[in-house]
Input
Amino acid sequence: MPLAHLRLRAGLAASGWLALGATALPGGSPLRWIPVLAFVTLVPGLALLHPQPSGLRPGARLEALALAAPVSLSLAALAATSLFLVKGFSTTAFLVSLAVFVTVVAALPGVPLPAATRGAVEREPRRTGGPRTRKILGWAGSRPRAKRKPGDGR
Output
C-alpha cells in the first residue's frame, strides 16, 4: 500500500479526534467551529467513499468529492437522531460517534464508485468510419453497396 494512501487514511481518522479536541477551545471561536463543521460535512463521506485500494481515477475523485457532503450529512443526521432517541445527545457524544465511525471506516476499503469501475472520464477517442472500417463493414460513403445476385457476372 503506498505511503500517500496510508497518510490519507490516517488523516481522515485523525480529523475526527482533532475536531473533538477543538471543542475544548472557547465558545464562538472560529478555531472551534470551523474544524467541527468541516469534519461533520465532509469527512465521514470521504472516509466511506475515498480509500480505494488502487486509488481513484480523476472522474472518480470528483464523484467522491461531490458525494462526500450529502453522505456525511446523512450519516450525521443518523447519528444525531439515534442519540436523540436514546436521550443521550450531546456535542461530545455526537462527535465521538462520528469520529469512531470514521476511524473504523478509514481502515476499510472504500465503497466502489461507478466512475472508478467503468473509467467514465478516460474516454477513448471515437472512431469514425475510416477506409479500414468501410472495408470491414462493407459500406463506402453514405449510400449502401448494391448486393450481388448469383449469375450477375460481375
User: Anything to note?
Assistant: Helices lie at 3-22, 30-49, 58-85, 91-106, 114-118, 131-137.
